[in-house]
Design goal:
316 residues, 2 domains, two-stranded antiparallel sheet, HET-domain-containing protein, HET, DUF8212
């Protein structure tokens, strides 16, 4: 795991997440711009500055520089930023980072959510629309970055504090449909049904179709190889992996509305045979947010059949 030193903006290698946790680190969540500072640029900048005894942070991108300065002021020696702490030219490094990213955010001491489209004059007590319309709430990757960390601090374009995730959990529930109990860490995200979790991503976008699946792996505690170029087959693979690890049948509760008395209507008009049991994208779970999986009822049903079936009693 690579981390930036907040005093110089230089990359340092930590052999494990546990080593990084012992040191303590802040983490940055943001929507990418066209010209983000890369891993290679960060390394090259450090090498060049070392020859002239200069601080590389002075010449880093404004976003990296301001994030490091903020983290340092708050007492953190280390910062993780996905744009320059992942060597994206290495497929193995990229795959490892994507599979570990939820853990990176979960174990950070603080997550700074930088909203580049919310002005410094914005006042939360007067107008919520700027916050609601921020691109940060519309991206696929930022969903896990909202859920995983215990402390999320939202920042305006000039790096002023807007609020925290916990202090305005009710507002963020309205914006994202993620229950405030999950946002406040009062309830484990794994206790929410698969259909419910999928619905949170239904209106979010990713630049590449594969990322529709990859950005959800941590939310479902799934680890699988990343294969850019496979398109939306990645989302099918994600569902297959979920099916292998979970008995939650709401994985298949997509594309229909459940009415009273068990009646169902197909809502999207798509033929089921296009993907069989699996949805084509998270969008098909848009109306599935209220569907729960009754684990206790399933256990009760199993126990009832076991007690009434002499064969089951002989072979537990």
């Amino acid at each position: 795991m690579w981390l930036l030193s907040t005093d110089r903006g230089e990359l340092h290698w930590f052999p494990s997440l546990e080593k990084a946790r012992l040191e303590g680190y802040a983490i940055l969540s943001h929507v990418w711009d066209e010209n983000e500072q890369t891993f290679q640029e960060t390394q090259a900048l450090s090498k060049t500055c070392s020859r002239f005894f200069l601080n590389p942070l002075w010449f880093s991108s404004p976003k990296v520089r301001e994030a490091c300065k903020l983290a340092q002021r708050c007492g953190y020696k280390w910062l993780w930023d996905d744009t320059c702490c992942i060597d994206k030219t290495s497929s193995s490094d990229l795959s490892e980072a994507i599979n570990s990213m939820f853990s990176y955010y979960a174990h950070a001491e603080v997550c700074y959510a930088y909203l580049k489209d919310v002005s410094s004059s914005f006042r939360l007590d007067l107008d919520e629309s700027a916050l609601r319309n921020s691109a940060w709430f519309k991206r696929g990757w930022t969903l896990q970055e909202l859920i995983a960390p215990q402390l999320v601090i939202f920042l305006s374009v000039d790096w002023h504090v807007i609020c925290t995730k916990a202090s305005h959990a009710t507002l963020f529930e309205r914006i994202t449909r993620v229950p405030r109990s999950v946002l406040r860490m009062e309830e484990d995200v794994r206790n929410m049904s698969i259909a419910c979790r999928m619905s949170w991503a239904a209106v979010r976008e990713t630049t590449r179709p594969e990322d529709e699946a990859y950005c959800l792996m941590g939310i479902f505690d799934i680890h699988m190889p990343t294969l850019y170029g496979e398109g939306r087959n990645a989302f099918r693979r994600l569902q297959e992996e979920i099916m292998k690890r979970s008995i939650d049948t709401t994985l298949f509760a997509w594309g229909f509305v459940v009415h009273d008395f068990g009646r169902c209507d197909t809502s999207n008009g798509r033929a089921n045979q296009e993907s069989g049991l699996f949805a084509l994208s998270p969008r098909e779970f848009l109306i599935s947010g209220k569907i729960a999986f009754a684990r206790d009822a399933l256990r009760l049903l199993h126990d009832t059949f076991a007690q009434s079936d002499p064969v089951s009693q002989l072979h537990p």
